[in-house]
Amino acid sequence: MRFGRLVQTNFLYLKKKLSDISKIIESQNAFFRTQKTKDVNFRLQLLKSLKAEIIANEEAIYTALHKDFKKSEFESFISEFGLVISELNLAINNLRKWAKPKRVKASILTFPSSDYIYKEPYGTVLVIGPWNYPFLLTMEPLIMAIAAGNTVVLKPSELTEHTSLLVSKIIDKVFSSEIATTVLGGIDVATELLAQRWDYIFFTGSVPVGKIVAKAAAKHLTPVTLELGGKSPCIIDDTANLKLAATRIVWGKFLNGGQTCIAADYLLVHKSIKADFIEILKTEITRFYGNNPKASRDFPRIINKRNTERLAKILKDTNVVFGGEIDINDSYISPTIVDSPRLDSPIMSDEIFGPILPILSYETDKDLEEIIWNFEKPLAFYIFSKNKRFVENTINKFEFGGGVINDLLIHFGNHRLPFGGVGHSGMGAYHGKLGFDTFSHEKAIIKRGNWIDPPIRYAPYSNKKFTILKKMFKWFG
Ligand code: NAD
């Protein structure tokens, strides 16, 4: 009821905000110049208030995510709320260290000197978020942008209106709009935002929109991080522990209803074990979600009817060997296995982004190359195998954002690992300190001593100076 009313006010709220975009940017730019965000204590205070407000809203966050696509509280905790709180704790506990100028070894060529890297916030940052993890993927960049001393305008997705509105309310409660604010709305609002000049743009979403963002950023030479998607393969070779592989694949593929950028998009199973593996997968899906996943409280819905229809369409004329139940009105598609789709079929053309798992088979490394190189560089890559040589060769052979051996998704959970894509799956990376680094320009500073000034570099040049200079470069350069 409470949320229903909030959503009704959404339009007015949005209209007001739209007319304010350039004023918001102006005020954020002006605030940035006051130098207040350069004060680490100020940033820490903001992060602590944000943490308190998020914790106070824990139940409301679960409710909003459930209203948006029936996401369970359990999944909302492990894949959104919990990760956001860990990222906040990490930033709060380490910010002083991260923000301090870092002394680096001086070069003999600049002797005498003390050399440093200063972390400098970019200024006013635009963050555009997707709908699939609508709390995590808006809050995480916001946290690191604020930690790094920027001001932020955040546009969450229009498709998760309950969560996006709640994100907006939390931000408005914690920050004055000259430090951070949200602008709610869809493509028109995003287009309007992208037409402005920013100091940094952080975008999470699809490849086609990523190209639009990159083009808009190029107009002002704005640095950009693009966290995109793609068709992420998962190889299961004939040495893999099939039961464990199936359990982990069913977890990682059907979490969030398969709407995860790093979900395995399709499986490549060694021909000799494929039939057995499909049977084990079926058993595991039933163990997770019962005989009727629609009735399971743990299985979310597709984000909206349009996406459900899209998935129903790509499922047409495929060899469904498990699942395949569709209820457009309920935005429901059951966990589904498709056997041996053609590479040129719709299901294999684009990222699936839903609970449909196509299974292809291979026999040789050449088969793998032919299939995997058929697609752009993926965001994630998974290998289930006990053959260490095969694993190393495969990691080195294929280009991809990041991956896991013998599991799915968990590389997202280690804040010491960079998270990001390559090629069409994105550019730039974040998480943990790397997120702080993403939102910081590294300023090189040399502090020079005055007590000695070797004259070698100064004119008039001479053969003797030149010989010494060459030797110095040879020995120390
Ligand atoms: P999307 O690209 O449709 O939308 C993302 C954001 O861009 C939304 O806020 C939307 O309003 C805005 N947008 C949409 N069309 C636009 C346009 N023409 N101009 C400007 N802005 C526009 O993506 P989505 O459907 O929300 O999310 C799904 C995609 O995101 C998948 O491809 C998935 O792989 C990817 N994704 C990537 C990551 C990652 O971390 N790499 C994480 C989550 C999702």
TrEMBL record:
A GO BP entry is:
aldehyde metabolic process
Name the SUPFAM superfamilies on file.
ALDH-like
| Active-site residue numbers | 227, 261
Top-level taxonomic group: Bacteria
Q: Which GO terms describe its molecular function?
A: aldehyde dehydrogenase (NAD+) activity
Residues in domain Aldehyde dehydrogenase?
Answer: 19-444
UniProt KW keywords:
NAD, Oxidoreductase
InterPro entries xrefs: Ald_DH/histidinol_DH, Ald_DH_C, Ald_DH_CS_CYS, Ald_DH_CS_GLU, Ald_DH_N, Aldehyde_DH_dom, Aldehyde_DH_NAD(P)
What family classification does the UniProt entry report for this protein? Belongs to the aldehyde dehydrogenase family.
Q: What's the protein name? A: Aldehyde dehydrogenase
> From which source organism is this entry?
Seonamhaeicola marinus
